[in-house]
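Dear colleagues,

As part of the handover before I leave the project, I'm documenting each prediction I ran so the next person doesn't have to rerun anything. This entry is a single chain, and its sequence is reproduced below.
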Amino acid sequence: MSLEKSKFMASKNVLRTKIVKFTSIIGFSNTMKLDRYLGFPFFSGGVKKRDFDFILDNIKEKLIG
């Protein structure tokens, strides 16, 4: 596990002081938005077909190359 790449996201209702304390205990940084996990995007809200277009694009590029 890479501490440099590890992040956590807290609810907006968590006090900033608690986030800072938790950050110092676990050594992870705090983020307001989690983008990807193992190359796949995290979704908030409904998932749409276009959310997976990047997979098809990657496959097409590999087939062309």
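The radius of gyration is 17 Å. The mean pLDDT is 81.

All the best with the project,
I.
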